[in-house]
Amino acid sequence: MTAIPETPPPPGRLEQTSTRIAFFIAGFGIAAWAPLVPYAKARAGLDDATLGLLLLSLGIGSILAMPIAGVLATRFGCRRVFTTGTLLICLSLPLLATVSSIPLLIATLFVFGAGLGTVDSTVNLQAVIVERASGRNMMSGFHGLFSVGGIVGAAGVSALLAIGLTPLWAMLVVIVLILAALFKAAPNLLPYGSESSGPAFAIPHGVVLFIGVLCFIVFLAEGAMLDWSAVFLTSDKHINEVYAGLGYAAFALTMTIGRLLGDTLVSRLGPRRIIVLGGLLAATGLALATVAPDWQVSLLGYALVGAGCSNIVPVLYTAVGKQTVMPESIAVPAITTLGYAGILVGPAAIGFIAHASSLNIAFGMIAVLLVGVAISGRILRV
């Protein structure tokens, strides 16, 4: 094994381009799963509660992989770890499109989640290194490419299904595109990681815990769009399954636009107004999507959720940098863990709530929580 150099050359434009492609792969890979959820639910004969349990296995796999990926990237470099995570995603997708056995589906979702967690953890580590070397703010642009990947993944798979491809063949097309992007990015992904500046996880307290809970709620709303929007459109709005991915696509589109305009919006409106207006807009959109009789209006509601949520989390990360309760090197991983718990584990809770009552009630509860986020913007120092 080639030793990792102690003083590697600083990353430049090629590494920046590869980081953008890597973020696209991360968004594309996770979004390709969204249109498959109704198919997997019907193929395995699942009710909402059982589907929620299966989604929990995806979240567990991802959250367990994140800190491990950080350690491995420090030991073996971002390139190897990111490539491994991407290959896990590619191996999982055909099974997610075909298996009907519940135990096998649980195992596959766990591996898929591990791949997603590995990719996401590693690409953010690479982004921090590349951004620092550039001497300018690049993180919003990187995450914008994640959102672009989400749009292409959800809308693209929906289009493939709409023209008559089976879920398996649609996933094979997805895999070819992912591997092509990986082939382009891999040569300039970093062959090293960075030294750990603190523990992989710390229990947050004080204002850091408060910010972490807000991140959890916003990511919970995002997870609901990813894992439940397609199911809701098919079961409640009676939309054809091949178009079910349009819900997440509408959300991801406005999320992307919001992120690309985020720096300008924050400078003009101020961070507190971003949280207040964003939380209220997202809550209104989710309520509209839930109670509207027509699926077209529901798509508008999902779009409002994306626009509202787009810049709340970046503002919250800025607030973490200003607090003095916990060191930043510990506080940031702590709220990141809480946030990803929302997007990956939270949707499983939605399944249990939906089973006990309905998806309408579950989405309504999230809308109420988003109103709470908006209220917090009045009291949080940002």
From TrEMBL:
Q: Where in the cell is it found?
A: Membrane
Question: Which InterPro entries does the record associate with it?
Answer: MFS, MFS_dom, MFS_trans_sf, MFS_Transporter
| Lineage top rank: taxon | Bacteria
Kindly give the membrane topology term recorded for this protein: Multi-pass membrane protein
Name the Gene Ontology molecular function terms of this record: transmembrane transporter activity
| Gene Ontology CC, one term | membrane
**What are the transmembrane regions?**
21-40, 52-74, 81-99, 105-130, 142-163, 169-190, 202-222, 242-262, 274-293, 299-320, 332-355, 361-380
Family matches, as Gene3D superfamilies = MFS general substrate transporter like domains
Task: Give the primary localization class.
Answer: membrane
Record's keyword terms, sorted: Membrane, Transmembrane, Transmembrane helix
Q: Which residues form the Major facilitator superfamily (MFS) profile domain?
A: 15-382
Which protein is depicted?
MFS transporter
